[in-house]
Amino acid sequence: MLSETTAFLLFSAIALVGAVNVVTRRNPVHAALWLVGAFLGVAGLFLTLGAGLLGAIQVMVYAGAIMVLFLFVILLLNLDTTPFEGLSIARGASLLATAATVALIAFPFARARELRAAAVPDEPELPATAGNIASILFHQYALPFEVVSLLLLIAMVGAIHLARRPRRDEPT
Amino acid sequence: MNLVAGLLLILPLAMAALLGLFGKRLHGKTPGLLAFGMAATCFGLAVAAFLHLRGLPEEARFVEASFWRWLDLGSGDQRLALDVGVWLDPLSVTWALFVTGVGSLIFLYSISYMEHEEGAWRYFSYLCLFLFSMLILVLGENLVLTFLGWEGVGLCSYLLIGFDYGKEVAARAGRKAFVVNRIGDVGFLIGMFWTWKLYGTLGHGEMKPIMAAVTAVPPLLALGYFVGACGKSAQLPLFVWLPDAMAGPTPVSALIHAATMVTAGIYLVLRLSPLFVAAEWALDVVAWTGAATALFAGLIALRQRDIKRVLAYSTVSQLGYMFLACGLGAFGAAAFHVITHAFFKALLFLGAGAVIHALHGEQDLWKMGGLKHHLPKTARAMTAGAFALAGIFPFAGFFSKDEILGVAFAQGYAGDPSRYVLWGMGVLTAALTAFYTARMMTLCFGGTSRVDPHLHPHEAPAPMAIALQVLMVASIVGGAALGFEALHWMPLHHWIDPVLAAPPHPTHLPPALNWGLMALAMMIAVLAWRIGAKWYGGDFAPARQAELTAPRFAKLLQGRFFVDELYALLIVRPLRFVAELCLEFDRRVVDGLFRGAGSFSALLSTTVRLAQNGVVHAYAFWMVVGAVLLLTLALA
Amino acid sequence: MSALLLLPTVDPAEPLLDAASPLWLTLLKSVAVFGITMTLVPLLVLAERRVSAWMQYRVGPNRVGIGGSLQPMADLVKMLFKEELKPDGVPAFLFTAAPAIAAITALSMMAVVPFGGTLEIAGRSIPLVVADVDIGVLAVLALSSIGVYGITLGGWASNSKYSLLGGLRSSAQMISYELTLGIALLSVLVAASGPEFGSFKLSELIARQAESGIWNCFKLPLGFVLFTIAAFAETNRLPFDLPEAEPELVGGYHTEYSSMRFGLFFLGEYAAMVAGSAVIVCLFLGGWHFPYLTKEVAVGWGGALTQVAVFLAKVLAFLFFFIHVRWTLPRLRYDQLMNFGWKWMLPLSLLNLLFAGIGAALGWF
Amino acid sequence: MVPQAWYLLLSALLFGLGIAGFVARRNTLVMFMSVELMLNAANVVFLAAARDHVPARGSACALFVIAVAAAEVAVGLALVLALFRLRKSVQADEVRELRA
Amino acid sequence: MNDLLLAGVILGPLAAALLLALWPKLAPEPARLLTLLITVATFVASLPLLATDAAGGMTRELDVPWIAALGIRFHLGVDGISAPLVVLTTLLMPLVVLASYGHVHDRVRQYCVLLLAMEAGMVGVFAALDLVLFYVFFEMSLIPLYLLVGVYGGARRTYAALKFVLFTVAGSLLLLLGILYVMHATGSADFAALRRATLSVREQAWLFAAFAAAFCVKVPLVPFHTWLPDAHVEAPTGGSVILAGVTLKMGTYGLLRFCLPLFPAASIEHAPLLLALAVVGILYGALLAWAQSDLKKIIAYSSVSHLGFVVLGLFSLQSSAATGATLQMINHGLSTGALFLLIGMIYERAHTRQLADFGGLARTMPRFAVCLVFATLSSIGLPGLNGFVGEFLILIGTWRDHPLAASLASLGVLLGAIYMLGLVKGLLFGPVGHPKTATWRDLTLREMATLAPLFALMIAIGFAPQPLLSRIEPAVERMLERPRLALEASLAPTAMPSVDEGAPPHDRAPGERR
């Protein structure tokens, strides 16, 4: 019963509904929560794609850490609900632009991928188990791995410095 | 012989440099004496050269000496090899002779004339430089050296006219002289280039055989040289600078603007006579210009108040005669007239100088009169010169002028009616010359004295007197000595004609007609002289009477045909207007164009700046649009 | 366009869940696990009150049932029938959802914990675990990080400063200690897998411990201690229960909650305790393994029961330890708590990870 | 075996919604959230594509994306916090000083 | 066979500049004296360069790999054309330093540094035989001049300096593009190799345009000349002398050294255009000079006119005209240098440059009058002085093929006389103009010393140009070798045997000339 197609449909539905609500909700907290929903939906999708580790990490990092950060900020600043801006021309134009982007990305990709799907995979079947991922991560992508770690360090320092409450003697 | 030639050139240059650098320390007469000494030695050298050349057989009668190679470029037919050297031949020696001869007399005259001037050393240094330039012009081995002399004399005349710094008039006249000469020089230059292109050489020696052999020469080439000659010898279009050049000291006028420099034009035409002959209608142009200038200048001279201006216009008129002679092909006659003219015109100028010296700078004829009692010797000398100028029998002028008229009449007689017109113009000018000379003499020396009372004129000091006397003798004897055509006594022609081109269509007058013409010319001169003397002798009644009959013509003459104003109107002012126009165009358009480029980029930057309006959404939106475009591009 | 709408092809060979455990068997197992946890929680509450009383030389609840044995039932009834209070201006849905999240995440952690080995009956071998997912341990971590939401939202939804501050503080604390928890867990994985990476499955870990006979708590003593302390922090148990400490924050995030919603929070907390101790048992105390009593190979009913009994004994012992700690150690001030978490626990856990790494490489374990 | 095209279509939709949120919404926080959405869409594509070729590599890339996203959120929220402290509001269009 | 003399002449002043720059404590006067000594030493050192190769080839070559990767070599060498120009530069330098005693009183050390750096740059330009090296020196000499005009200049100095730089740099960017393309197309930047390389006619056209653009701005040819008067008016005396004396020659030198030999086909094609521009330049420049009232502007526009003559000579493709043009480059350096020095001297006294303010200087400053007249005569080409020789050769050479252009150009000689004598009359003769004329001292010994070498050279070249010309001619003929061949080929395509472009240029044995 719980075959892959139904799982896919279920999770993508969650993700899409979550995404739509993130964009449309006026209250940032609701938006944040819907985003958590979307993340969980996407995590589910990862599972259907066989990337278990990614699913867990997605939940842990995105839903667990990033969204909590968002909630912290929203709650600390106790933002009130922003009045929903009317659909000004700019808004209309931007929506139009997004529709165009969506069409452009989806259409060719779908076609192109199908054509190449038949192509023989160039590398031996490497199931997305933690071991394989780890080996790729530390062999082929060693440099990016180090760079990302550096990036995270910089982000931490940056975030602390930016958000630090200025001490009394410092100018705000 | 090379030494003689070399010295002839080095001496004046050395003296000019000597006086130029150390002149300040020499006081009083020493600079003058030094200069005169140098001039005299040069005259001696010239005579030595003359004698040497007489010794040589006729066809080998030339000496070529080159000192150092000035320029040597190119190869084969495009070779341009010019040396600094000397080319002595009868023509150049003749010129050297009368240049140094008259020159040394004028140097002598200047000693006393410039005695009280404080810049005398500078004056004499310029005079020596002038003598050097004139000599190198005449003796130069190739046309470039002639051109060197040509511009050199132009420069010296500029310096000498503007000798008296203070006077604005002198400065402007100097500049005018140089500029007008320069116009002529352009013609000379173009002539030279063309000659080099056609014949590949500029050296007189090398050109002689070529010119002899050449048959058809592009007329414009010859006319190029003629324009140069007009510029230097003040012919019709370019004569305006000579009358103004009178602003310089009188000996300068005598030396440069009567005897030597102005004859350079004739020398050039004579030197290149074969070219002129070969250039079909070039000679006719020369003839007609000469005749027209003679007549034109003669008319203007009629009503000039300033004694030196009268002489200046008479010089222009006489030069016209010379060019008329060249135009007719009688190159020998032209040379003859040049020499005689040098004598009596120098005499007249020096005489006028003595008069002015006596009257402490007064030059206006209406402020003179009755001077023959105070300056008897000067009066006598000037009368001789005047008679020579007017062309009265025994005096020099008569022979040379008559010869020219004779040739004109002969060619007319030989079947070319236009020559008769030329002869007619010549005779009319002769009459006018006699008239204004008489007018000048009577106004100056005869009649009642209109001199400023507290001026008491005294006779010219010794050096001036000597110079006057020598020139008087030359004016009297010179003509007959050099050539009495009717009596076939023509030593000058025998001496100079072989070097010049043979006249294109030689003519011969029956002796009776010849003598008749001479008598006619004599009669006209005497008659015109008497009328002139009578008109201006007494109370000027007849003169005033003539004025009333043709008032406008009189004023026209008085205003010198307004030639200066005409030139200013037609050339100088438009040229200056074009210059102003160019300046404005340059600043506004060309510069504006580049400045515009600058402001355009500023404009561009302001428009682009508007895109940065600080709204995050705008940036986001444009990012998306950009992405979309890229995608369509990638996928299309 | 037809090419676009490719219908998904169903590939029978690759079902999502493995055939060995049909759906109904999983449901059965989950009901069993749920039942055990739900019974354990009220007992735990009673046990806590009795033990704390015993430790403080007092009697504790003994009125209801024999010696207070029915006290949990009384509490349950109280929870159910008390009036549902809801402060005004409160987002209704979130107010109720928050305690639910806390409870659900705590309970669902149990799904991954293996109670015993594999039961061999009627030709079908049934692994005594609800869902032996191959990312097992990670699921625990993931669920614990989701648990944070319950408390945070609970604090915010009750629309009062105290509860908001309490909520934020407790979530901050849980996140900080989650880090140490993760690294300690990592050290266990590293130690268990040796030079070649093993897997995240708890049953695999237990098998490894059984195989070598030495429980992880002896292999990685530092890891064991750190993991337990972090577990305490995760479940907001005593040394770290500042957020709902009565004197400072008047009950912290569940001040405004009443009756059943409070009950759910309460259930969540205790369920988290049970799950936490179960995980610790599996990781460090050899799970259902006991040196001589249990056998690794698939066992019949007798063997299975002994395995489950051993496992439960260990869990109960550990729970006792939980309660014991609560009433002995003083409460940590918030800054001390955070300092300790970041400046002590984290470096130590990294050190432990280093030790585990070297050990795994050199094959000590 | 759900065909890859469907995953891509889904991610395209997610990405579109992300852009819509990013461009249309005034609130900076919502803009951040939409960026997260976009990143997730990217992750989906990574994995969907990798499924038919080298699944492990897809996950590795997705990992990097997640790491970067985490870093970005940290700094982004710090900025929002600083902005709020300065302006008392997080409306993007009220902050227009950084203008040419 | 590397000869280090050239490197010495370039690097000597450069090192001195560095030394002075890094020696803040040096007082102004000793710094100026030291600079004077260095410039004189450089001049003396550069004299042996004049012993050029009779066949017109390069002498004193120094060929050392510089940027090996790109095949760019530090290749210096001097021939009949560049040797005199180098010596002109090293000669003018000490005079400029000597002249600076009059008007540069503050920041003297920096002034000297700029001068020395500029000298190195300019000598480098004339000696470089590698395109890239040439470009480097071309730019290097630009910066000090910019600073000189910009810092030590008159009222609108920044505007003038900026304009000057923008003009030159815009041009030289095209040059850079050209060089890059040439290096790409022929694979090497070395001058000798390039002279044999064959480029297609179309390539040559574009490259010629690029190279000529940079050099025409520098010359300056008429449309691009508007920077010159501004730069001169605002430049200090030293700056003006160098700007007119040497910087302008870089343009014409570039045309002769690079445009003609490297792109023969394009040169013939563009020759008529450039001739026309030259003639326009001569007449237009002269007219503008006449309409000016500022002394320096008159001389600046006269430079436009004189250099018009040079370009005329170069592009008449006649060996005697081109030789005359090269000589005219040197003459112009001498006469305009002298004129600018004189104007600088009068400016130091009167502090005004408007011609109308002056008059009657001859009486109170006779020495100044004599020098000014002398320099003017040389500038307007009085025979017997250097100006005439150059102009005469140019005109006589150009006349062979382009009579109309030559005659129009000789009008320029006439216009030259008009505006220069106008200048002289305005300054020297006529009534006394400036109230304080009497107070001005006549030229001091120092000022006379500055002018003396220039006047000596004017007379020397005027009376005996052959020693110099015999050095220039073979080099110029070598430069014109290919354009002339291309010209003959284009004029009589059938008759000429197929010209082997690649053949090394055959040297005319000296004997053959007799």
Task: Reconstruct the topology from this structure.
The complex is a heteropentamer of chains A (172), B (636), C (365), D (100) and E (514).
Chain A: H1 4-24, H2 28-48, H3 52-77, H4 89-117, H5 130-138, H6 142-163
Helix pairs in contact in A: 1-2, 2-3
Chain D: H1 4-24, H2 28-52, H3 55-87
Helix pairs in contact in D: 1-2, 2-3
Chain E: H1 5-21, H2 28-46, E1 59-67, E2 72-78, H3 82-103, H4 108-127, H5 131-140, H6 142-152, H7 157-186, H8 191-196, H9 201-218, H10 227-234, H11 237-262, H12 264-290, H13 295-315, H14 319-350, H15 361-364, H16 366-379, H17 386-401, H18 403-427, H19 445-463, H20 466-491, H21 510-513
Antiparallel strand pairs in E: 1-2
Helix pairs in contact in E: 1-2, 1-4, 2-3, 2-4, 3-4, 3-11, 3-14, 3-19, 4-5, 4-6, 5-7, 6-7, 7-9, 7-10, 9-11, 9-12, 10-13, 11-13, 11-14, 11-20, 12-13, 12-18, 12-20, 13-14, 13-17, 13-18, 14-16, 14-17, 14-19, 14-20, 16-18, 17-18, 17-19
What this model shows, in words?
Chain A is mostly helical and 172 residues long. Chain A has two domains: 1-79, Four Helix Bundle (Hemerythrin (Met), subunit A), CATH 1.20.120.1200; 129-172. In chain A, 74% of the residues lie in helices and 0% in strands. Chain A contains six helices and no strands. Chain A has helices at residues 4-24, 28-48, 52-77, 89-117, 130-138, 142-163. With 636 residues, chain B is mostly helical. Helix content of chain B is 73%, strand content 3%. Chain B has helices spanning 2-22, 30-55, 90-113, 120-139, 143-161, 168-199, 204-213, 219-232, 241-244, 250-259, 264-271, 273-278, 282-301, 307-328, 331-358, 376-390, 396-413, 417-444, 462-482, 491-496, 511-537, 541-549, 551-558, 563-609, 616-635, and strands at 63-73, 80-88. The longest helix of chain B has 47 residues, at 563-609. Chain B is globular and about 115 Å long. The N and C termini of chain B lie far apart (97 Å). Chain D has a single domain (4-87), classed as Orthogonal Bundle (Helix Hairpins), CATH 1.10.287. Helix content of chain D is 79%, strand content 0%. Chain D has three helices and no strands. Chain D is elongated and about 50 Å long. The N and C termini of chain D lie far apart (53 Å). Chain E is 73% helix and 3% strand. In chain E, helix 3 packs antiparallel against helix 19 and helix 6 runs antiparallel to helix 7 (157-186). Chain E has 21 helices and two strands. Chain E has a two-stranded antiparallel sheet with strand order 1-2. Chain E has 514 residues and is mainly alpha-helical. Chain E has two domains: 1-262, no CATH class; 264-488, no CATH class. At the A-D interface, helix 1, helix 2, helix 3, helix 4 and helix 5 of A face helix 1, helix 2 and helix 3 of D.
